[in-house]
Every structure is written in C-alpha cells, then in structure tokens.
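Hi, here's the filled form for the chain we discussed.

Project: internal
Contact: R.S.
Residues: 446
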Amino acid sequence: MNAAPRLPLLLWALLLLPGALHPQDQPAVPDRVETARLVVQALTDRDFTTVVARFDPTMRRALSPEQLSQSWDALREQVGAFDAQGEATLDRVQGFDRVTVVTTFARGSIDVRVVFNQAGQVSGLWFTPHPRDPSSSPPAYADTGAFREVAVTVGQGEMILPGTLSMPTSAGARPAVVLVHGSGPHDRNETIGPNQPFRDFAWGLASRGIAVLRYEKRTRNYASRIAAAPAGFTLREESEDDALAAVTLLRSMPGIDSSRIFILGHSLGGMLAPRIATRDPGIAGVIILAGSTRPLDEILLAQIDYIARLDDSISSEEEQRIAAVREGLAAVAELTAADTSSPTLLLGAPPSYWLDLRAYHPTETARVLARPMLILQGGRDYQVTMEDLRGWEMALSGRSDVRFRVFPDLNHLFIAGRGRPTPTEYQIPGHVAQEVIEEIAAWIHR
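And the returned structure, exactly as it came back:
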C-alpha cells in the first residue's frame, strides 16, 4: 500500500490500467492523439459515459462510468483541481497505439495514457505521475566503486521480470536482500517523481557489503494482460510470487550466502513481508518499512480525509468524493467467497483481491513467524502512520528478535522533510536518509 507517492495507497491504480510496455518500431496512427485529448477533456468535464463509450468490450466490462468516476475523484483528491492539457506523445507498443497526455493539476502533473486497439477503441487507460528527471547523483553514503550492477531475470514462464542485482565487490559470501514494492505499478527503483528510494536502498546497502536485488513489478510490465483477465488476481500474483522467485534466484548465484537472504518490504510490501516469509522457511529475516497493520478501508478513508483537510476545510466536491469511496468500500464489505471468480472491479481491484486482503492479518502472521524482524517507521508518514506501528508493537514487543525504530523527520519514502507532510512533498528531490541505511545494514550484519 504505498503508495504513494505514485498515487498513494490507492488500489485503483493497480488494475485500471496497463503499465510499462515495450516499444516496437512500427508506425502509429496520427489521429489517435486528438482522440486521446478528447478522452482527457471528457474526464475533466466529468463526462464518464462518453469515455466508457470509447472502451473496447473488455474495458467496458471492467470499468463502468461510476467506477471511472470514483477513480477520477480519487486522483483529484490527491493532485487537486485540473489546470490544463500539455504535451501529447504517441508511440506503438505490442501492436497497440499509445498516447501519453501530460495533464497538469493544482498539486502536480499526471500522465494520462490512452491505448487504442486496431479498431480505434480504448483498450487501456491509466494515470501515473509525470516523471521528473530523477536525481542522477548517487546519495553521499553510496560508494559506487564498492559494488557492481548485474542485469538479471526474475521468475519463469510468461511473466518474467527484468531486474538488477547490486553486488558488492568485496570477497566472500555476502548476505542479500530482496526489495518488495508498495502498491501500484512500480519500476525496480520504486521511482516516485524525482526520487528513487529502491535505488538508494540498493546502492547504500551494497556499499556496506550486502547484495540487493530489485526488479520491475508485475503490475507494471504485464498490466494490460492482468487488466484483460482480472478475475482471480490476488496479493500472491501482485507481489508474493515474484518476491519468492527473486529469493530462489539469489540462492543460485555465486557469492551469495544462501542462509542470509532477507525480505525488505516497503508499504504494501512491508505489510506482506511476514506472509512472504511464511512461504519460504529459508528466508533469514524480515525488514518492514512503513508496513500497515490497520484494515485497508480505514487507511483509505483516513488518507482521503487527510488530503481533503490540507486546506483546513472540506468542500462539497471533496465530500462527494469521500462518499463515493465509502460507497465502494461498502460494496467490498458485502463480498463473499461466491464472488471470487467475478471480473467486476471495485475501487479498481477484482473481488478476489479484496477477499484475499480481507483474509490476511499481518500482525497475526508476524506473531507466529519465527524469524528476526526489523520494523522501521517514519514519524512524518501520513499514509502509514504511527498507529500502524503500534499494531506491530502490540503483537511483537515481547520478542527479543524483533527491533523497532522510529525516524521522526522522515516521510513515507524515508526521506527527510519538515512541516506538515503533503503529496507534493514526493516531488521534491531527495534520498533515503543515511541513518535508515545504517540501521538496516547493522541489523543484517548482526
């Protein structure tokens, strides 16, 4: 549940849209740009029926005008009022025409990506923060001469994922860490605006003799395939299976101490880290960064309310958005096992996903997990808060093999900041704080 940052913790970003596709050298259809701009205009006019009318049959089954309205309102809750359309670019990916329209809002810019099939119907639609140039300079605590980076492939079969192994150049068998993303279609660096926290973790830990494996998230590389057949999709497919495949890969690599492979999960990845570890008894330990312990409906409503109140008031439009999310969550609460195979999306995810999430209790799983755990929390995190940390503490505080630490000045990305945290803070260039890197490295080496 991360979010974050990439549209914090909102699951509608998960399946609503295809993620990164691989360009091919084929010409695209010029009039697609104008059609994409019309789609964006209809969204800003709240004419969701017109948008859905352009969908192909699969998209229409997956996303009704009401559901699209909820997704759009959730986006607006975070980025503010619409300002203007900007540059539009067109390319061709996997046989489809894709148009990216840069769209500016009061609190940031969003890329609205519209994918067209050969018949000119919209077969994919998604919103991602417009990327700023990430900080090219490494953090001060990274010694780029102390490690090398190796391209790897995680998993097997139809959904293999490209990844990067940051391998220390020091002699001997090294401990290793697998990084597990938060919610949303992340790249291997968990890029959020100009920030790349997973790159910071990899370079910082590799500089201290710890190998780190990071990889593209499945919902980024194969989002169009997932969106076309969402029924049955769960947390296993989103995160767990690929994390376990990464662990398996590390065990096969020379220079890795297979008895000291750790899971480091951020946000949603942190919440899932105990469950991932239960599926592989050989995992040496778990590192939880901003892992939530509260029910997701409580977190979603708290986040939306927090953002709405940043100007110390809630407008009627904001009240309507909150009411729409409440309505979606009420529908989620009524799901039963009989709905598991349904492809209908609720707040952007199929019933199978919500039912799996409902059945998972992270603190109960962690309580019976006989593995060392390091649990870290940023004091300025408005998404996963100190209340979530207290959930971990209540379940695990009596254990000598569990360590907790709070960093008062850090936000959800474990980057330092000041004052009242807001979503726009994620667009300010920064690096994961060195004290976090040192804490993790020392714990692993101990």
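Let me know if anything looks off before we file it.
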